[in-house]
Write a structure and sequence with these properties.
By secondary structure, the chain is mainly α. It contains 12 helices and no strands. It is found in: Cell membrane.
Length: about 270
Amino acid sequence: MDLWLWLKYTMLGLFQGFTEPIPVSSSGHLVIAQNLFGLKIEGLSFEVLVNFASLLAVLLVYREDLIRLSRGGLLYIRHRDPEHRSDFRFIVFIIIATIPAGVAGVLFNDFIADRLKGLTVVGATLLVTALALWLIRNMRGHKGESEITIKDAIIIGLGQAVALIPGISRSGATIVAAMGIGLKQATALRFSFLMFIPISLGGMVLEFEELANDPHLDTLLIPYILAFIGSLVASYYSLRWFMNIMARGNLKIFSWYCVIAGTAVLIYSLT
């Protein structure tokens, strides 16, 4: 029985990790997976834990960008070097873009956890994700890092806030918003995942007490660890794969997938 439970949580971690970077909604698929495996995980502590594993994967993949931005941002603050102004601005815009989701998370986390975790909601919102991805499937954009504005950052941030709803992909919503306002694909992808870092850290801080006081932690410690490792490994390779997909401009495959998955979930939930 323990081995079967460990396998279920490992599969949950792999499932969440693989779907976190790609625009198909990891939170929605986590709801689907829990129903398939017959698990009912209360609260947000487990989701925050596996999201933190995905965060570590993002840090590994974008470590060179993070080092460059950190160094450039500090040099600009110290010396006002025009050469590093774009790095400083990019960091500021990442912070600005994080604010809408941070505020929405504080205000609506409990409501989302209690009211929007059902299969019917996930099925419907997966179809919304599919439509959004289809609308930007052929866009290429023209704006690079140095051309991002405060308005752009706020719009992308609002996309991330909407993605708190299970079934609305976080990466999908932010990339759709970024490409919709003219960002290049590579810039949209980088901005999307770098803004995942502060929102994920913020979620970890806000939910740390719930995670530490999780009444099931003693009995589920090993399953949680296995899910964490599974999410970390799957997120890393999934993000690498998605970067190649974005470079080839094949977002429509995710749109079709969301149509199929959303329709199947709706049929299952309504029958």
